[in-house]
Design a protein that fits this description.
- This protein is α+β, with helices and mostly antiparallel strands.
- It contains six helices and ten strands; from the N terminus they run βααβββαβαβββααββ.
- The strands form two sheets. A seven-stranded mixed beta sheet has the order 1-2-3-4-5-7-6, with helices on both faces.
- Strand 3 and strand 4 form a beta hairpin.
- Helix 1 packs across helix 2.
- The radius of gyration is 18 Å and the shape is globular.
């Protein structure tokens, strides 16, 4: 069952994972991306999600599986889908696949009467903040402290798993960054390199950003956007 997506880069297909063999390969690819099977996605869980009608797709370069993504429906009344995990092999990153996959999720969700897609991301990773808030126009709904507990994969080992929860209103026009900014929270340009080269500095950034976020949220402010040089932009609702 093919579901080629026209917005994907040339030669790349995004299609459902239907067979046990495809699911097993997707689990292996996700484990490779994270450097640990524990932080990827077990094949049996992927199979269960797919079989029960949730979002489980693979990204293919020809017949080679080079990435995978899985999400599941929220409470029935909310008309939401939560995008839980997406991974693309290193050689295929920074090639526009993230944008293609989000547009694929959007069309898939619309076809099933879903109005919002939610997901979490590490607030310290600047490129994800830029993409999620500035390019897609998703909005931050919560700051989650150490949301998954300690993770032992190559990407997260030694750090706490703070996450921002975002919600993407699929039918809404993308909003521009606000003009009435009250406060901002800067983040490093490359926290991933810092975690390797200066882990103590990276840990200090985690605490600094967390404390400032929680302080501003407690004051009733909300995240209204993101700017690369300033970081997260806070406004009064």
């Amino acid at each position: 069952m093919s579901d080629t997506f026209s917005h994907a880069p040339a030669g790349i297909e995004i299609r459902p994972l239907d067979t046990v063999e495809e699911i097993a390969e997707a689990s292996r690819v996700l484990a490779e991306v994270w450097g640990s099977a524990a932080s990827g996605m077990p094949a049996d869980l992927l199979r269960a999600l797919a079989h029960s009608g949730n979002y489980v797709v693979g990204l293919y370069d020809g017949e080679r599986l080079i990435g995978a993504s899985a999400g599941f429906f929220g409470p029935p009344a909310s008309r939401t889908m939560h995008s839980h995990i997406t991974g693309v092999l290193p050689g295929y990153q920074a090639r526009g696949l993230g944008r293609a996959l989000k547009q694929h999720q959007r069309e898939w969700a619309f076809a099933r009467d879903v109005g919002h897609i939610t997901w979490t991301f590490d607030p310290l990773i600047a490129r994800n903040a830029h993409f999620n808030l500035l390019i897609l126009g998703a909005r931050v709904t919560d700051y989650l402290v150490d949301h998954y507990g300690r993770l032992e994969d190559d990407l997260n080992r030694g750090d706490e798993s703070d996450r921002l929860m975002v919600s993407w209103a699929l039918a809404a026009p993308r909003a521009n960054n606000p003009l009435d900014v009250v406060a901002s929270v800067p983040i490093p340009r490359d926290i991933e390199t810092m975690r390797v080269e200066a882990p103590e500095d990276a840990a200090a950034w985690r605490v600094r950003v967390r404390d400032r976020f929680l302080e501003l949220l407690a004051d009733g402010l909300v995240v209204g956007g993101f700017r690369d040089e300033a970081g997260y932009l806070f406004v009064r609702p």
